[in-house]
Amino acid sequence: MRAEGKAVSIAQLCRWFGVARSTFYYRPTGSVARVPVLDTALVATIRTIIEAEPAAGLRMITARVRRASAQPVNRKKIHRILKVNGWQVHQRPRGQRPRVLGWVSRTTRPNERWAIDTTHLFCGRDGWCHLTAIIDCCDRTIVGWRLSRTGIANVAAAALEDALRDRNITHGHAPLTLRSDNGLVFGAKIFVSVVRRYGLEQEYITPYSPEQNGMIERFFLTLKQECVWLQRFEDRDHAFRVVADWLDRYHADRPHSALGRASWGTAGARRSAASDTGTFRLLRRLVVPIGPFVDQLPKLDVAGSTPVARSLVDARPSESFSR
Question: If DSSP codes are grouped into helix, strand and coil, which group holds residue 246?
Answer without folding.
Answer: helix
